[in-house]
Amino acid sequence: MELKQNVILTKIEEYLDTRKWSLYRLAKEAEIQYSSLHSMFEKNTQPTIPTLMKICKGLGISMSDFFSDTLITEFSHCTEDEQELLNIYRELDRKDKKLILSVSRRFAEK
């Protein structure tokens, strides 16, 4: 008998699919060991609250966003240019994201 995957893992997979991220990418963004995430999916276990908080932070969403009925995929209140910037930003690794934020803050100071 095959176990049905739990709702939390299914929701995480939905976020990964919409972002076209691998589990490895999520592990990097969330600063969680890949083996821990992989094991969670293999064993079909619920993440702990601290782990789920890290996952949400890695996805760039809040816990309330995670548990809402809709996936947070777009920023409908943003202009087309802002959406493009956000999409590009999401594709960057942590180091490049920090660099972009630093440069952006300098521009904002002027």
Please provide a written account of the structure.
This protein is an all-alpha fold and 110 residues long. Helix content is 68%, strand content 0%. The chain folds into two domains: 1-71, lambda repressor-like DNA-binding domains (434 Repressor (Amino-terminal Domain), Orthogonal Bundle); 74-110, no CATH class. It contains seven helices and no strands. It starts with 6 loop residues before the first helix and ends with a helix. 8% of the residues are buried.
Q: What is the compact description of this entry?
A:
Helix content is 68%, strand content 0%. By secondary structure, the protein is mostly helical.
In CATH, the architecture of the largest domain is: Orthogonal Bundle
Q: What is the H/E order? A: HHHHHHH
Number of strands: 0
Q: What percentage of amino acids are in beta strands? A: under 5%
| Rg computed from alpha carbons, rounded to a whole number of angstroms | 16 Å
**Oligomeric state:** single chain
Number of alpha- plus pi-helical segments: 7
CATH level-1 class of the largest domain: Mainly Alpha
Total discrete domains = 2
CATH topology of the largest domain: 434 Repressor (Amino-terminal Domain)
Helix fraction, binned, reads: 55-70%
Q: Which term fits the overall shape?
A: globular
